[in-house]
Amino acid sequence: MHQKPILLIIFFWAFIHIASAGPEQSVVQITNYTQQPDWVEPWRFSPVSGGLGSGFVIEGQRIMTNAHVVSWSKQLIVYRFQDPQPYRATVEYIGHDCDLAVLRVDDPTFFEGIPALEIGELPGVRSVVTTYGYPSGGRQISYTSGVVSRIEVQRYMQPSNRNLLTVQTDAAINPGNSGGPVIQDGKVVGVSFQGKPGLENAGFFIPPVIISHFLEDIADERYDGFPDAGISIVKLTNPAFREALGLPQSNTGARIDSLLHPFPKTHELIRENDVLLEVSGYEVGSDGTILYQGNRVHCSILFDEVQHGESIELKVWRKNEALDIELPLYVNREDRISGNQYEPPPYIIVGGLVFTELSSNYLGSLGRNWRNKISPEILYELIYRNRLGEDEAREKPIVLSKILKHPSNVDFAVGSRSILTELNGSEITNMADFKAALENTEDEFYRFRFLSGAEEALNRADALAADRQLIQQYNIPSAQRL
To answer: pTM value?
Structure first.
């Protein structure tokens, strides 16, 4: 007689339980204990500090998060939803160019009862999404809903020199939310990753096309990265210039302004002043944009859909005719120094002179007004020199970072922040060149030549003796790290 009410109660409880088991069950909190190098004194490291972020479970018993959440990690601790027990995790793959990473958890029981979230499709503008994560200052998960307000190409702050597709929303994305999923209809349509200084009520997330590219890339157990075509595209709206190139007067076609290095296939197949008409079948507007799922965005997003070593179909206008070209794309690693670095910097100490690689991190460590502290030549070396080709480029310019004072170098007239170009007549383009020149010289002196044209010298025997003293005096573990 009383079974029916009992069954109804059980059914109601089960319904409430299932309804409450939403995506939050798959969202984790991440604590990263980090230690970063000192770029001016590269043998030193900062004190260990902790930072918070979010992540979510994906197929294969893995956790996806942002690369910036787990960068410089000494130890990673992850927490399940509403579970106080800490679990140790490690970085399995990391893509600094797209600000994504995949983690493994040492204890496989961590994933028991946690469903993997599925990657969805690009959300439409004006549609509603919900962000999940653990903003700084709390152990309880946070949910915020908002509207997708814009889809466009933006600079990713993690690499600082890469522009990829992003989605803007007015849902709150605060520190600690980074790495958490953005959900629509129960599927992941983005990964929260950054805000924009001065822009209120706006956050950005990484869209599914970038997430899927990253996951496809690591399927072979190696991360290559997002490839590049090696071309610079500029708008072509001037009627006179279009007529000079033999183009019809329309809104189609953007000009290829320059070819970058090192992209030998691009130099073989593409010419400067070619006009890009189509990419992967998408018509390219005169401003370089395409119509992509209802959004007007830069055509570069189509290049970002291709994996390293694969080809993309282009249609270009050259000498009054349209040509179909299949262009192979490769990851560009030659512009690495112009972006943020995520490996301890190499260094060599010679007679108290501390040399390291020029990088954006090194310049950033000089303070907020670092541009006022360097010469235009250094900025040129960092950003533009590598575009000039193999004959002109210095692979990884070497900078005199600091001078540890010693009687042997007291009269050394060249100051820090100078680019080394030669040692004893040998050209220096990277640390390997520098080390070889030091080891192979039989001269009584180390003779330095710098980008400014300045020349200086140290007595070789005195320099070697000084290094032995300075290493002990400053507690430096070694005179070099390569």
So the answer is: 0.90
Query: What are the tens digits of pLDDT across the range 418-473?
Result: 999 999 999 998 999 999 999 999 999 999 999 999 999 999 999 999 999 999 99
379 falls within a domain: yes
Query: Tell me, what CATH number does 283's domain have?
Result: 2.30.42.10
User: Among 54, 68, 73, 261, which one carries the catalytic annotation?
Assistant: 68
99: annotated active-site residue: yes
Tell me if residue 178 is catalytic: yes
Number of structural domains in the chain: 4
Catalytic residue, from 26, 73, 99, 418: name it.
99
User: Based on the domain organization, do 300 and 345 belong to the same domain?
Assistant: no
| Shared-domain flag, residues 286 and 385 | no
Are 423 and 461 found together in one domain?
A: yes
Q: Which residue has the higher pLDDT, 256 or 9?
A: 256
The answer, yes or no, to whether residue 384 has pLDDT greater than 80, is: no
- Say if residue 262 is preceded by a cis peptide, omega within 30 of 0: yes
Whether 68 is catalytic: yes
Q: Which of 194, 220, 246 is the last residue of a domain?
A: 220
Q: Can you give the residue range of the structural domain that contains 52? A: 24-111
pLDDT, tens digit, for every residue of 121-172?
Answer: 999 999 999 999 998 767 899 999 999 999 999 999 999 989 999 999 998 8
Among residues 178, 286, 300, 338, which one is catalytic?
A: 178
Are 215 and 251 found together in one domain? no
